[in-house]
Amino acid sequence: MKSPFMDEAFALAREGLGRVSPNPAVGAVIVQDGQVVGRGFHTWRGVKHAEIVALDQAGPRARGATVYVTLEPCSHQGRTGPCADALIRAGVARVVAAMKDVNPQVSGQGFTKLRAAGIEVEWASDYEQDALKLNEAFVHAMRTGLPLVTLKSALTLDGKLGARQGDTGWITGEKAREHVQMLRHHSDAILTGIGTVLADDPLLTDRTGLERSRPLLRIVLDSNLRTPLNSRLVSSANDDLLIATTAEGPPDRRTALEQRGVKVGQAFSLPVIFDYLADNQYRSLLVEAGPKVNGAFLDAGLADKVFLYYATKILGGDALSLSAGLTRARADAIRLKNVWLSIISEDVFALEGYVHRNH
After folding, report:
1. Which of 90, 165, 178, 207 has the highest CB neighbour count under 10 A?
2. How far apart are CA 237 and CA 227, in angstroms?
3. Do the beta carbons of residue 341 and residue 201 sit within 8 Å?
4. What's the CA gap between 171 and 155, in Å, rounded?
5. Cβ neighbours of residue 214 under 8 Å, at least 6 residues apart?
6. Are 47 and 40 contacting, i.e. CB atoms less than 8 angstroms apart?
7. What amino acid positions are annotated as catalytic residues?
C-alpha cells in the first residue's frame, strides 16, 4: 500500500543522489500521531545518516513514533554508529522500510536488532522496486563487487551517432544535454576513447553545479598516449583524469601528462579498470564513447544498462552507428529488459533499459 510518508522519504532520499557515494541514498520520515515530526536524508559530507538527522529534528517526539525509511537501518559501526541502535534509544515504536540492505555488513541484521528490542518492523513491499532503482549502482556493487556500467549515447532514429567525417555538431538539443549532465552527476566515473577525444575535444565534467561527494573521475582509453597535451581534458585535470594506456605509450608522453596532473595507468585493460574502480569504491561508470568502445563493452558483456537519447532525425548511409562490435545474427542479438521510454523535449525521447543476461 502506498503511503504519503514513504513517498516523502523517497523524495528526501533523491536529494542525496550524487552527494552520497559510495554510500546509498536514504531518506527517513518520523511520524507521530499522523504528523511529520522529523525528516532527514544522508549526504557523504554531512556524515550523519538519514535516520539520525530525522531523530535530531524530532527530539523527544520520536518516542512511540513510526519511522518511514527507504532502506533498512544499518546495524554496524562505520563513520557513524548503528542507526538501529539510535532508533532503539529514541524509543520509536515502529519502523517501515522499503527494502533490506544488501550490504553484507547489514543484510537483515538491522531488522533483527529492532525486533529484538520490541520495535515493530514492517516491509513496504510496494516500494521495493523504487528502492532498488534509487540505489541500483550501490545494489549492483554490493552483489557483484563491480561498478554498474551504463552505456550512454545520442542517436538518430536510424541508430546513427555521428554524420560523415568532418560534419560535426550536436544530434540532440539543449534539453537532452542538460539531462546528460544529471546522468553525469549521478555517476562516480565517466569513460571515453581516444577517438572521441581527438574528434570532439570533450571536457566530460559534471556541469550541474550541484554538490558531489567526490569529483567525477574521467577515464580515457588511449593505448598510444595520443591525448593532446593542450586538450580540454588535460588542461582541466585536477587529480580527476585517468588515462588508461599500454606499454606502447611513449615514456616521454607519459611523463608530460603526469607533469600536468594526469594519472597514467599502464597495462590498464578493461578488467584492470574495473578492478581499480571497485577497489576505490566507485559504484557507477558512465560510458560516453564512439562505436569502437561501445562495441567493446557490449561484446565483452561489460555494459549493464543503456541510456539512449533519440533525436527525431534520420542520417542514413554509412554514418557512424552505435556499435562497431560484432555483427550478430538475430538469434544472438543483445537484448534489453525492463525498458522505459521518456520524453526529453519535443524532438528527443530517451530509452533506458538493462542488458539481458543469459545467466
Report:
1. 90
2. 12
3. no
4. 7
5. 21, 44, 188
6. no
7. 51
